[in-house]
Amino acid sequence: MDEDVRHLLEHRRYSQVLERLLNLYETKVFHMALGILNDAGRAEEVTQDIFLKLWQALPAYDGRASPGTWLYAIARNTCLSASRSESYRKTVPLDIPTEPAAPTTGSRDIELAQCVDRLPEIQRQVITLFYLQDKSVAEVARMLALPDGTVKSHLHRARVALATMMKG
Amino acid sequence: MDCQETQESILDSLVESLATERYLSMENHLAGCETCSNFAKVHRTLDSRLAAAIPQGPISPAFRTALRKRIQRDPEALWPDFLPDVAHLAGCALVIALSVLLLPFNSRSVLLVGLVFTSGTYFLQAALRSGDGVGV
């Protein structure tokens, strides 16, 4: 799939590239923003920012990284900037969707959501992204530019910390 | 397999499938160890609760419309992909019209030559743009 996108990029078919990348990565990038920002409405706004930045940067694509990896780098930087500039995660519970995002399938589990919110930032991001990305360590590692082993290690620590918090 | 290895295997099993031998060793240990059995129960329940609690909804249907509106406000959007084709055809049409009006030749001949030239150059530039590594 990334090869198709590369081919279109070589021929400067930018509208088609954007459409293809939206089809491939729109939900993944939205989930990444949701995992980092912990606010569905804000995550959707930031996802728009990410694809707008991508659109503006398409002519400068140099082909060194795959288009997916390149998009994740833009997404990661944009999400982290948004996360640093605003403090959303302390006020929005994990499983409560906000407009304009679509209703979610998650059920309310306030106790668990509060415990997840108390995890160190990287553990919270990793464990949230893991469940948002169909339990794929490889995808979370690619999104956060971390080795697979590091993602697993954060997951294990987060689980142990959550179990301890919920017992206490 | 001792308790530490078993608990590590339990956590790994929540991330990926374990190799058969490791899985059997873990289950064998769990059958006789209440501490690890409780550990497994707690973490399997936690795994189910996390899967249920973390929202997995799709992005809203209005997302792409809103994005396109923002992109249309971007100067880049003023240069659509089909612009070269439109510019080529419009340019050829203008030259043919001027040639018919100004050149001292039969207008049908001028029109015919113009259409052949337009078709030829259109397919040539299309081939150059779509060919691998050529004409970009």
Could you characterize the architecture of this molecule?
Chain A has 168 residues and is mostly helical. Chain A has two domains: 101 residues, RNA polymerase sigma factor, region 2, helix turn helix motif (Rna Polymerase Sigma Factor, Chain: A, Orthogonal Bundle); 60 residues, Arc Repressor Mutant, subunit A (Orthogonal Bundle). Helices cover 70% and strands 0% of the residues of chain A. In chain A, α2 crosses α4, α2 crosses α6 and α7 packs across α8. In chain A, 40% of the residues are buried. Chain B has two domains: 51 residues, no CATH class; 60 residues, no CATH class. At the A-B interface, α2, α3, α5, α6 and α8 of A face α1, α3 and α4 of B.
What is the overall shape of chain B?
A: rod-shaped
- Number of strand segments of chain B: 0
Overall tally of structural domains of chain A? 2
Task: Give the biggest beta sheet of chain B.
Answer: none
How much of the sequence lies in strands of chain B comes to under 5%
Q: Per CATH, which architecture of the largest domain in chain A?
A: Orthogonal Bundle
Q: Proportion of β residues of chain A?
A: under 5%
Order of helices and strands of chain A: HHHHHHHH
What is the share of helical residues of chain A? over 70%
Low-confidence stretches of chain B: 131-136
CATH superfamily of the largest domain in chain A: RNA polymerase sigma factor, region 2, helix turn helix motif
Most extensive interface, chain pair and sizes: A-B, 55 and 38 residues
Q: Nearest-angstrom radius of gyration of chain A? A: 17 Å
C-alpha Rg of chain B (nearest Å): 35 Å
Determine the mean pLDDT of chain B.
Answer: 84
Count up the helices of chain B. 6
Can you give the helix content of chain B as a percent range? over 70%
Count the domains of chain B.
Answer: 2
End-to-end Cα distance of chain A? 47 Å
